[in-house]
Design brief:
Radius of gyration: 16 Å
Helix content: 25-40%
Strand order of the largest sheet: 2-1-3-4-11-10-9-6-7
Number of helices: 7
CATH class: Alpha Beta
Order of helices and strands: EHEHEHEHEEHEEEEEHH
Largest sheet: 9 strands, mixed
Shape: globular
CATH superfamily: Class I glutamine amidotransferase (GATase) domain
Distance between the termini: 31 Å
Length: 239
């Protein structure tokens, strides 16, 4: 039974992730890790980490304090996720990052963000009211994402107003939208590293059987269930 740790400051906002993972594997246990809980103790019994959507990482974390007025910052979430990313790397845990999860991982590994896509010339990614946008993505060949999904392109949902600017040194692009915005990332050199896949779209809100949703969830859960020893993974140095 895979035990997945999901970071949040408000579990009520992230029930879709639980429902999605348990639809794919009813035996999945999802533990909501909130500020005040022990990161080390919680991850000691974890099989994987899921970094979900949410507010904006603080631009102070990537050296651009002038961008803070453009952001909806959650300091508690930032502190929690920087600590949990370090702990997950120490344990070589499989990691799935969705929307904010992609962004905070890029920052944690030394990258930077576009604080507001619309004002930077990228339209069609942020929500209109309460509804997701939809747009096409192109998946790069010979990537983990392409191998998992078997797809070279697809149409996805979108609800983010921030994007990737400088790519963290150890990450590589796995998918882009037609306007050039980065939509998915993974390890640039995956050999010996645990499963890592990061995307801006929300597979937990896509229809059952969507080619860029459930295949990703199944691959992630399989990596979690296999265990790090079976995958030959080693811990990742955090910087």
């Amino acid at each position: 039974m895979p035990r997945i740790i999901l970071t949040t400051t408000d579990p009520s906002q992230h029930q879709n992730y639980l429902r999605w993972l348990q639809r794919l594997n009813p035996d999945t246990e999802v533990v909501f890790l909130v500020p005040g809980m022990s990161v080390e103790e919680t991850l000691d019994s974890a099989d994987g980490l899921l970094l979900p959507g949410g507010g904006d990482p603080d631009p102070l974390l990537y050296g651009k304090p002038e961008l803070r007025p453009l952001c909806r910052i959650d300091d508690a979430r930032d502190a929690l996720e920087f600590a949990v990313i370090r702990a997950a790397f120490d344990r070589a845990l499989p990691v799935l990052g969705i929307c904010r999860g992609l962004q905070v991982m890029n920052v944690a590994l030394g990258g930077t963000l576009i604080a507001d896509l619309p004002s930077s010339g990228f339209d069609g990614h942020h929500r209109t009211g309460d509804d997701d946008r939809t747009h096409d993505v192109v998946i790069l060949p010979d990537t983990l994402l392409q191998r998992i999904t078997g797809e070279s392109s697809g149409r996805v949902n979108s609800a983010h107003h921030q994007g990737i600017d400088l790519i963290a040194p150890r990450l590589a692009v796995a998918a882009r939208s037609h306007d050039g915005a980065i939509e998915a990332m993974e390890w640039s050199q995956p050999t010996g590293k645990p499963f890592l896949l990061l995307m801006h779209w929300h597979p937990e809100r896509l229809p059952f059987g969507h080619p860029l949703a459930d295949s990703i969830g199944y691959a992630y859960l399989a990596a979690c269930a296999a265990g790090n020893a079976a995958e030959g993974s080693t811990s990742v140095e955090f910087s």
